[in-house]
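Revision sheet: structure tokens.
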Amino acid sequence: MKSFTSQIWLALIASVLLAGCASAPDTTEESESTSYESHSSDPIEGFNRAMWSINYDYLDPYLVRPVSLAYVDYVPVPVRQGVANFLSNLDEPSSMINNIVMGNGEKAVDHFNRFWINSTFGLLGLIDVASAAGITDHNEKAFSDAVGHYGVGNGPYVMVPGYGPWTVREATDVVDGMYVPLSYLNIWAGLGKWALEGMESRAALVPQESMLHNSPDPYALTRDAYLQRQDFKAEIETQQYDEEEEAYLDEYLDDF
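Predicted:
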């Protein structure tokens, strides 16, 4: 089982990747927030806020949310769990290598053991035998986390329609696709993996939707939480926030 801290950040990754589809400020809030302060990592904030509105007004209520809930409601739990285990197992080798780059030897060994055990005894990863054997299921590490660990900044923050938050540094994650077994996935298999994982993540957000709805500026909340999460994954010190903003972020995380 994952540690409590890992569970929090895995929940946060799910929320921020699709938070653009979870909520947005109403028109009165938008008019009142025209004087928002610029953020050093968000040089195209006006564009990003427009993309946030597209996600909330159209893509989420008419596509992402209903499809995700239908998947969760109608696909049997054992099938969904097996699919989730299989897809997670595909990321173990790249996470192993990225942890080696970051100097996390013990975590790298765990990723290696999880991969060969689940691939061999868990029917290609459909069954999580490694967790039952007591091998820790660590957070996935991407190549962007490894380069971030050594001082490469996030670069500009971008709100992608239908996807959510993204930073330019994450473009380096293309390196992860060069490792087996991810290297065997064609574009359609890769999109299928992304979609299946995204549906699970979006469905898990339903109980937290009110948090963003009630936020005075859900866009800024999601952006700041996402950038914090990027620093956490790269295992670098997070930037400091003022007390009011930090308290609000704590409240946001406490709901998980």
